[in-house]
Amino acid sequence: MTEKTTIIVHSGDMDKIYSALIIGNGALSMGMEASLYFTFWGLERLKKDGLEKGSLSKMNMGGLGKSMIKSRMKQANVASLERLMRDYKELGGKIIACEMTMEIMGVKKEELQEELIDEYGAVGTYIHEARESEINLFI
Amino acid sequence: MAEEIKIDVTGETCPVPLVEVRKALRKASPGDIVEVTGTHPASKKEIPMVAEAFGLEIIDTEEKDGVWKIKIRR
């Protein structure tokens, strides 16, 4: 059976979404399956046009820190989150949206980028994925 | 007939070179050669790890002035 990486994306911060998608893409590139479980603040990033909207987890300074980091990333030719998400899906990565978060935050399916989401689930779905994963991360 | 598939990830950084190698390997048929050219130093080390993960052979590696070229047989 193919090895698997499962990541809980709890944070909606831009830098942490980068970490999650880079690790997800790395796992797929190296022949593993990958599953990203978006919950709490992470789920915000699955909203339409929401992927790039997160602030920086540290030194955001009202968005100033974020734009500084973004310009440094551009100089270093770092791929956009949109591109990383596209590659992630192209290589067969799975996206799960947390239904309880949708209830708590009052998020409707129509507000989300439904074309990216493979499954809507709760803790059972996560455990089902995670118990057979070699790499399990909480971001 | 084995084909040679060339990909260029010059200037690209983590994780794009690995992702592009994986995409090319997916499209290649057994026996084809995937030749990847790039500049990101860590990827030069890590592309062979991708090949190893799929049990594939690196048939050639060269580097000149910071530009490396790696050939993998699918």
Task: Quickly describe the structure.
The complex is a heterodimer of chains A (139) and B (74). Chain A is α/β, with parallel strands linked by helices.
How would you describe the overall organization of this protein?
The complex is a heterodimer of chains A (139) and B (74). Chain A has 139 residues and is of the alpha/beta class. Chain A has a single domain (4-138), classed as DsrEFH-like (Hypothetical Protein Ychn, Chain: A, 3-Layer(aba) Sandwich). Chain A has 6 helices and 5 strands. By secondary structure, chain B is of the alpha+beta class. Chain B has one domain (13-73): Translation Initiation Factor IF3, CATH 3.30.110.40. Helices cover 34% and strands 36% of the residues of chain B. Chain B contains 2 helices and 4 strands; from the N terminus they run βαβαββ. Chain B has helices spanning 16-27, 41-53; strands spanning 4-9, 33-38, 57-64, 67-73. Chain B has a 4-stranded mixed sheet with strand order 1-2-4-3, with helices on one face. In chain B, β1 (4-9), α1 (16-27) and β2 (33-38) form a beta-alpha-beta unit. The longest helix of chain B has 13 residues, at 41-53. Chain B is globular. Classes of the chains: A alpha/beta (139), B alpha+beta (74). The A-B interface holds A 22, 25-26, 28-31, 76-79, 84, 87, 90-91 and B 11-16, 18-19, 21-23, 26, 49-50, 53-54.
